């Protein structure tokens, strides 16, 4: 993929594309091909494939050779040097369920925490050839539609909102009650979009994402994209999203306040 320079003051922003390239080369030979699927859970289903493992291995090798003093937290291969000022947070395939069923709504998540805060992130989808990046101050898109700046859209009323979630089945009883109440009030809801939902909010095609049970590597890369495009990402109680948990992301801060009022009692 040929990339264009992006306008970011973060010194590590160009490195996002290098990480996306090595992840793509490791992952794409397996997409829509035959491969073994392992289940991480004793009960339920949380799949992992050779593509997940190889993608993270490739990114870790590049980080360690380029910035040996940086830390790494990856979904597949665990923590490394987490006391470092800069810690890369990696999910080589966010949306493995989509990946194993041949759907292109998965993405490689590449995040950077600086002094504990999300500072830089990218979602790369090599099959479609799209990359969404952000540094909390600005956000950008590179792909078949060219290179452009991302901007969330205005939406101050729940009745006009489009919301996303992976699946309501992931919510517990109280969380599901809160989500159903919100879903019954909005204009449109969409399921199964994984990391793409956050990028669509950043691009102004949707208004909010409501999730639960996230890990740090599921969200850190997406925070700088949403915030850089003008949106807000917090826990359901308004706290930092960087450690995962119950997460809500909104394109319009006014809508975010409405959602927090609905969700806080179930947090």
Indicate the topology.
Elements: H1 13-27, E1 37-39, E2 47-49, H2 50-66, E3 71-74, E4 78-80, E5 86-94, H3 96-100, E6 107-114, E7 117-125, E8 130-134, E9 139-143, E10 146-149, E11 162-165, H4 173-183, E12 188-191, H5 195-202, E13 208-214, H6 216-219, H7 223-228, E14 232-235, E15 245-250, H8 253-263
Parallel strand pairs: 3-5, 11-12, 11-13
Antiparallel strand pairs: 1-2, 3-4, 5-6, 6-7, 7-8, 8-9, 9-10, 13-15, 14-15
Helix pairs in contact: 1-2
Account of the protein in words:
- With 267 residues, the protein is α+β, with helices and mostly antiparallel strands.
- The chain has two domains: 13-149, Fructose-1,6-Bisphosphatase, subunit A, domain 1 (Fructose-1,6-Bisphosphatase, Chain A, domain 1, 2-Layer Sandwich), CATH 3.30.540; 158-266, D-Maltodextrin-Binding Protein, domain 2 (3-Layer(aba) Sandwich), CATH 3.40.190.
- The chain is 29% helix and 29% strand.
- It is built from eight helices and 15 strands.
- The protein has helices spanning 13-27, 50-66, 96-100, 173-183, 195-202, 216-219, 223-228, 253-263; strands spanning 37-39, 47-49, 71-74, 78-80, 86-94, 107-114, 117-125, 130-134, 139-143, 146-149, 162-165, 188-191, 208-214, 232-235, 245-250.
- It has an eight-stranded mixed β-sheet, with helices on both faces. Strands 12-11-13-15-14 form a five-stranded mixed β-sheet, with helices on both faces.
- Helix 1 (13-27) runs antiparallel to helix 2 (50-66).
- The longest helix has 17 residues, at 50-66.
- Mean pLDDT is 93; it is low at 1-5.
